[in-house]
């Protein structure tokens, strides 16, 4: 073995506050992002992810301000996503303190963005996020936070973004997201068997075993979760101890 | 005390500056030979390829001042800031490094094992092979954060301080006299990394 399995808590942020809601509805305030990020760092998170769920043009300066506040307090890798449309957007986020930038919808509208951004800043800082749903045969890719279905299939799209220069894939199962019934290990394993870049599994974490299965069965390199960590339902340390018991390498 | 941080034109220096500032150090960004005045220590947080780094150092007239500083000041090289200290790299044949260490930077071997991915990116164990002031309070085999595709495999035994395994063993920290350099990113390695940076700030030569 070499690098450790990564546990990545995710902060959904809107107007400078952590928010929680089901399918982006009934949103409630869940605290200060920098405070939450700092707590995760102390609890042993391997990276922090922040997703700007509003990402409107008007809210951009608030977002950058939040990125900077987190970066000033947290000294582990920090990924930021939401509303990234251009190479310049990537640059501004990196300058504000992000180590990696996650691109979703704009990568589909303009795949060249992946190539340009990874050439400019290096593959290591370009994460492509994919939202997908099972259609009975394979997994369809959706854009705009899961609103619009595309013709793309998750497996071929992920191979495509790897070739374009993405450094990692953040795979969210829309079937599982918010259900707390476990990750889509079929989807993840299908991708992991074919990809040479790391795969981050997202969507469905509800209990400890789900995270372990995402690694053991889903073959993911990292797991991302929001609410289970936010409400301290499961501690990061407990997840890592469970992974270690399974013989997997973790940072404790 | 003022820590100079080299910005040769292609590196993301902000995280290093943030980490040093969080430890109470004041920093000065170094872009020209004049900027080397009035600094007490120097950090080189390189990124990108060794060839373009070497070229940019020459283009910006930083090479001579840098070599001068390497002879005098406590120096910490990070990532490409370690690789540039060697004579050359397989990544950019023909481009000269700073030759503080006479060996070569090499590409990782390719492995059938799919869990060994290149670039080597993520947290990995750092085994201490020789004590150093900068490693004070850090236990052998603590995890640090790496992002790189080339590495130091050959070096003088006296100049190797830590080793790491990624399909094969490579030197993850080297040093001599006033110079210390890490392949990993202490500024992104949480508590362990901050401890090392604090040691660097306390380091007297």
Would you mind describing this structure in some detail?
The complex is a heterodimer of chains A (252) and B (205). Chain A is α/β, with parallel strands linked by helices. Chain A has helices at residues 33-43, 60-73, 87-96, 105-109, 112-121, 154-164, 185-192, 208-216, 227-230, 236-245, and strands at residues 6-14, 17-22, 25-29, 48-52, 78-81, 100-103, 126-134, 139-143, 148-153, 168-173, 199-202, 222-225. In chain A, helix 8 packs across helix 10 (236-245). The mean pLDDT of chain A is 92. The longest helix of chain B is centred in the last third of the chain and has 13 residues, at 190-202. In chain B, the strands form two sheets. In chain B, strands 2-1-3-4-12-11-10-7-8 form a nine-stranded mixed sheet. Chain B has helices at 14-22, 50-59, 63-72, 80-83, 190-202; strands spanning 2-6, 26-30, 41-46, 75-79, 86-89, 101-107, 120-128, 142-148, 150-152, 160-165, 169-176, 179-182. Chain B is of the alpha/beta class and 205 residues long. Chain B has five helices and twelve strands. Classes of the chains: A alpha/beta (252), B alpha/beta (205). Chains A and B meet through helix 2 of A and helix 1, strand 7, strand 8 and helix 5 of B.
Short summary of the structure?
With 252 residues, chain A is an alpha/beta fold.
SSE topology sketch:
The complex is a heterodimer of chains A (252) and B (205).
Chain A: E1 6-14, E2 17-22, E3 25-29, H1 33-43, E4 48-52, H2 60-73, E5 78-81, H3 87-96, E6 100-103, H4 105-109, H5 112-121, E7 126-134, E8 139-143, E9 148-153, H6 154-164, E10 168-173, H7 185-192, E11 199-202, H8 208-216, E12 222-225, H9 227-230, H10 236-245
Parallel strand pairs in A: 1-4, 1-12, 4-5, 5-6, 6-7, 7-10, 10-11, 11-12
Antiparallel strand pairs in A: 1-2, 2-3, 7-8, 8-9
Chain B: E1 2-6, H1 14-22, E2 26-30, E3 41-46, H2 50-59, H3 63-72, E4 75-79, H4 80-83, E5 86-89, E6 101-107, E7 120-128, E8 142-148, E9 150-152, E10 160-165, E11 169-176, E12 179-182, H5 190-202
Parallel strand pairs in B: 1-2, 1-3, 3-4, 4-12, 5-6
Antiparallel strand pairs in B: 6-9, 7-8, 7-10, 10-11, 11-12
